[in-house]
């Protein structure tokens, strides 16, 4: 029993350590980024380079940090994000050669534009725009009767509506804030005449919209590019070449079509990317049960390793806290503070220390599991009636023996309850690990949220809930088994 | 086990011992001798310091001032564990560990000292006979025992290593009157039979007088009077002694 357990843990650990050497491509947690990640992977496969794609690693901050630390080798990015968010001392309208020069000292390279610009745009129904003769933003000035519906963010940002109105001298007075998801429907049903959108939104071809030409260059450029680690030029020059060959090949229309295929027609990103490149999709091809099994293994690995480590550290910490009152308070306060760190932030904090993937997730889960166990160990030990503790001392037993034979068994029930709490929290929180590439049940949840696919969300959420229930039941059994019978009798009285 | 010093016949001795908890004076310059083999009852109201006195004798508390001598030798931290092993200590609720059976409770210390299983069981059965514990009770958990039985087990645990002395802190305080009366008889018979140094803490005069010829009355951490029952009743050292003696209602007093 014990050996099987050890063997399983060792197996899980080893499979986490044996990373292969292929080039690692990352992508952000939205459809366009995932498609571009697949395009890069399939293009490199075409060039004979082994590459893996770690999908949906979360937001810009995570990808950027992972690239800098070498946890991934390349990912799709936008020039506007580089100038506005990631690089300092770069003018907001910097062109790609300027960016290339600014990135070089960081050890990061950048391809030329892939051929499209994913920026804010103003869209109208194509038929209506044609009737009114509107092609460019400056044409809007002649139609003060038009009604605009803008996303709340666009309404508020100084580089949104207020600046746009000023640059083009727009006279329209009927301007409403709308949720971005609803705005397409509002436009389709003629409730508004123009909305803000991203220039490669899948809905543009679907609703037959026209994006108006930004003829006075108001909106910043968000040219799509790949950024990659410069050391790839030595490690895998063929890969860099395959990335560079993609530049100029994807225009806004092509990107919109690909987005629409995935978001509106439910195609897989791999299939869409392969179709674009004209190659055979290699798809995982595995059925739902195989996927479920793989995710269960990933999820269990996160939970088991982090929980085991937490038990090994937290129980001694709890014993120490109960012994050394003053330092104990410090220990308790620190583990309490850890608990207040929002989970997503905790996962992100771990990236500089452990990279992306399984280990930072395990580290974050480990830290979260400490508090319930430390606190319950402390409470269990300090809750022992003083006369019993003194009786043990009066017998003439040394401290260590008292702890082992009297105090820990009496605190056992509280300690196990703490471990159970930690385990259940751990199973739930581990779903966030998918955002930093740790896989597990969080993966379908993240994808499901992105694609607004409830079925996919449930494919992760239901097993996670089941695992939490199983863990809970398991620990209740262990609790019954390990709590001395005499303690249970007392509880019955 | 440290050898008993032949130079002194005092099992325990306190010399000018003081102990405070914050503002509360638990022991105030107490000097007392407990000769080996003697029976003594410490009496007084709650908070008079009598329990603290037992606890400093076992090294469960350390005096702020003064010294403790055990068998003539100064008590030091290093010998505390050895001292505790040759003194049996019994407290009011028994202090039995709920997660262990009776035998488990009795075996804790002997097991640590390397006694064999058979030796432990044999000793436990001897003591069960001595304290009239029903034979099947050894396998039970404390929660399955009556209050009187728990107290018998606590006494057995104190006697496992056949100690030189027994310190009992309100050993019968939590029992109902009939069980209490029965156990008073049995305890006294056991004390007489074993001939150990016994110090009993109680606030019941009658019980104190039943267990010991020598009564030590304490108040606010000081010894008020140290003598026989007769001395306390007829030659009180202080008006408080008379008040304490008279506060013990007798049935005759109530019905009169």
Automatic annotation (TrEMBL), chain A:
What is the organism field in this record?
Answer: Dyella flagellata
Name the domain of life this protein comes from.
Bacteria
Concerning its family, UniProt says: In the N-terminal section; belongs to the binding-protein-dependent transport system permease family.
Give residue ranges for domain ABC transmembrane type-1: 296-475
Q: Where is the signal peptide?
A: 1-20
Q: Where in the cell is it found?
A: Cell membrane
Q: What InterPro entries does the annotation carry?
A: ABC_Gly_betaine_transp_sub-bd, ABC_transp_perm/SBD, MetI-like, MetI-like_sf, PBP2_ProX-like
- Main localization, broad class: membrane
Membrane topology term: Multi-pass membrane protein
What keywords does the record list, in alphabetical order? Membrane, Signal, Transmembrane, Transmembrane helix, Transport
Q: What is this protein called?
A: Amino acid ABC transporter permease
Query: Which residue spans traverse the membrane?
Result: 300-322, 329-350, 356-374, 414-436, 456-478
Automatic annotation (TrEMBL), chain B:
Highest taxon, organism lineage: Bacteria
Task: Give the InterPro entries listed for this entry.
Answer: AAA+_ATPase, ABC_transporter-like_ATP-bd, P-loop_NTPase
Q: Give the GO molecular function terms.
A: ATP binding
Checking Pfam families in the record gives: ABC_tran
Q: Which UniProt keywords apply?
A: ATP-binding, Nucleotide-binding, Transport
Q: Does the keyword Nucleotide-binding apply?
A: yes
Which PROSITE patterns does the entry link to?
ABC_TRANSPORTER_2
Q: Where is the ABC transporter domain?
A: 12-245
PANTHER family recorded = OSMOPROTECTANT IMPORT ATP-BINDING PROTEIN OSMV
Say which family it is in. Belongs to the ABC transporter superfamily.
Designated name of the protein: ABC transporter ATP-binding protein
| Organism of provenance | Dyella flagellata
Q: Which gene encodes it?
A: yehX
């Amino acid at each position: 029993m014990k050996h099987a357990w050890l063997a399983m843990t060792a197996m899980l650990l080893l499979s986490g350590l044996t990373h292969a050497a292929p080039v690692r491509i990352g992508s952000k947690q939205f459809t366009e980024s995932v498609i571009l990640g697949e395009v890069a992977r399939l293009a490199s496969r075409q060039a004979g380079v082994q590459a893996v794609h770690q999908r949906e690693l979360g937001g810009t901050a995570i990808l950027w940090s992972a690239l800098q630390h070498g946890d991934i080798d390349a990912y799709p990015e936008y020039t506007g994000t580089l100038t506005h968010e990631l690089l300092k001392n770069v003018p907001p309208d910097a062109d790609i050669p300027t960016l290339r020069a600014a990135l070089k000292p960081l050890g990061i390279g950048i391809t030329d534009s892939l051929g499209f610009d994913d920026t804010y745009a103003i869209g109208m129904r194509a038929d209506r725009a044609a009737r009114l003769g509107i092609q460019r933003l400056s044409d809007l000035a002649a139609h003060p009767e038009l009604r605009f519906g803008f996303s709340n963010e666009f309404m508020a940002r100084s580089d949104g509506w207020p600046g746009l109105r000023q640059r083009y001298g727009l006279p329209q007075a009927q301007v409403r804030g709308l949720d971005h998801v609803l705005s397409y429907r509002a436009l389709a049903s003629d409730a508004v005449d123009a909305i803000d959108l991203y220039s490669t939104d899948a809905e543009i071809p679907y609703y037959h919209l026209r994006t108006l030409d930004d003829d006075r260059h108001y909106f910043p450029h968000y040219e799509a590019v790949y950024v990659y680690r410069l050391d790839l030029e030595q490690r895998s020059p063929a890969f860099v070449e395959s990335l560079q060959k993609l530049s100029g090949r994807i225009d806004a229309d092509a990107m919109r079509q690909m987005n629409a295929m995935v978001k509106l027609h439910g195609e897989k990103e791999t299939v869409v990317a392969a179709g674009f490149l004209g190659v055979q999709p290699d798809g995982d091809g595995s059925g739902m049960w195989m996927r479920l099994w793989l995710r269960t293994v990933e999820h269990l690995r996160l939970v088991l390793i982090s929980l085991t480590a937490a038990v090994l550290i937290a129980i001694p910490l709890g014993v120490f806290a109960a012994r050394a009152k003053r330092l104990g308070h410090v220990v308790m306060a620190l583990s309490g503070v850890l608990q207040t760190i929002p989970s997503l932030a905790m996962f992100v904090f771990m990236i500089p220390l452990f990279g992306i993937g399984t280990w930072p997730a395990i580290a974050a889960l480990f830290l979260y599991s400490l508090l319930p166990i430390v606190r319950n160990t402390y409470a269990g030990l300090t809750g022992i009636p003083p006369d019993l503790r003194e009786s043990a001392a009066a017998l003439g037993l040394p401290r260590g023996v008292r702890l082992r034979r009297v105090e820990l068994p009496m605190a056992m029930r509280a300690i196990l309850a703490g471990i159970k709490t930690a385990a259940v929290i751990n199973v739930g929180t581990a779903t966030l690990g998918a955002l930093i590439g740790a896989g597990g049940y969080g993966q379908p949840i993240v994808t499901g949220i992105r694609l607004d696919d409830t079925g996919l969300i449930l494919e992760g959420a239901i097993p996670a809930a089941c695992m939490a229930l199983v863990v809970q039941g398991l620990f209740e059994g262990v609790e019954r088994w390990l709590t001395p019978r005499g303690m249970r009798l007392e509880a019955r009285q | 086990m440290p050898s008993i010093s032949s130079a002194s016949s005092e099992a325990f001795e306190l010399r000018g011992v003081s102990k405070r908890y914050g503002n509360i004076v638990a022991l105030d310059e107490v000097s007392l001798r407990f000769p080996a083999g003697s029976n003594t009852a410490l009496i007084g109201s709650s908070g008079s310091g009598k329990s603290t006195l037992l606890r400093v004798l076992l090294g469960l508390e350390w005096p702020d001032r003064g010294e403790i001598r055990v068998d003539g030798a100064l008590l030091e931290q290093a010998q505390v564990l050895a001292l505790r092993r040759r003194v049996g200590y019994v407290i009011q609720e028994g202090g039995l560990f709920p997660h262990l059976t009776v035998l488990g409770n009795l075996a804790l210390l002997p097991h640590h000292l390397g006694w064999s299983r058979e030796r432990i069981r044999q000793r436990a059965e001897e003591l069960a006979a001595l304290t009239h514990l029903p034979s099947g009770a050894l396998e039970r958990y404390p929660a399955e025992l009556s209050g009187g039985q728990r107290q018998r087990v606590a006494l057995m645990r104190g006697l496992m290593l056949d100690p030189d002395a027994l310190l009992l802190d309100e050993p019968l305080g939590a029992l109902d009157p009939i069980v209490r009366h029965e156990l008073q008889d049995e305890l006294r018979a056991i004390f007489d039979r074993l001939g150990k140094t016994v110090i009993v803490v109680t606030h019941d005069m009658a019980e104190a007088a039943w267990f010991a010829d020598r009564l030590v009355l304490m108040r606010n951490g000081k010894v008020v009077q140290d003598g026989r029952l007769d001395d306390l009743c007829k030659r009180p050292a202080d008006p408080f002694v008379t008040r304490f003696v008279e506060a013990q209602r007798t049935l005759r007093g109530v019905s009169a």
